[in-house]
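Q: What structure does this chain adopt?
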Amino acid sequence: MTTSQNVKLKLPKLGRASLAERKARKGWLFVLPFIIGFILVYLPIIIDSVCFSFMTVEIKLDQQGYSYTEVVSHGLEFYREMFGDSDFTKRLGQGIGQLLWEVPAIVIFALFVAVILNQKMLGRAVFRAIFFVPVILSTGLLESLTANSIAGEGGVDDGSGESATDGLVSAMDLQGLFGMMAIGGDLVKKIVELVNHVYDIITFSGVQMLIFLAGLQSISPAIYEAARIDGASAWETFWKITFPMISPMILVNGIYTIIDSFTRNNNTVMKFIGEVYDNESQSLATAEYWVYFMIIFAIVAAFGGIVSAYVFYQRRD
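A:
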């Protein structure tokens, strides 16, 4: 090597950061309040909760919040007792079974309504507000007031001698309807559950509907115009353009609906653990909550891993 050869040195680039780096910094700045709040507020509570599941404690409220005294340490005894409880495993199976039909029903209904409300029509904003009203009514005090005013103690009297809380249809009605179609009783039972829970499906699909609407409005109209020029039908346009383009929203709504369904107050498992916490043992209930959390986390991870393999992400470059 001669000294006349030029040696090129790689010097670090100076100047402004790239657009992606600036967006990443703004993203961290946006979530920074949550991170600080989680570390200062939620993390100590989570650590205490884990400790409570391994020992019997006496919790006392005071002016500073609460204080607890460890009575005796039990190790994994509460976890063994929990899995030996047939009521807990039965409620857990019921909760997962409810999830299997509730999540698809809510996501499909939200997508169906979003597609309809995305069309150009008179009073579109009013219809969107109407479908989102149940979400507002299902929060906090409004939920209890609405439930008490509609149902009361004995349900709504419609003059038929039966309570309106018994359901919209019965299994006998659908059995006669589907009798000539050779549909099994289990399927009829699931259809009855869906029909009788139509109010719940509408109530818990408002957020998902808005997410789908945002996804539908982000699709470029030029894509639909090109499809119409090529002679694509509405059915083909939906499955070839709309459905792939909103597949990321399907993933988000699916995960959101799973978590919302599992943590809802009327969930069978949540009600059961709440009864254990109030009437039996706070430490046992804490252990059940943690196992329930791990099951939810596993289901969400499995759903996200499977669905994300089929999600289409449009490239902007």
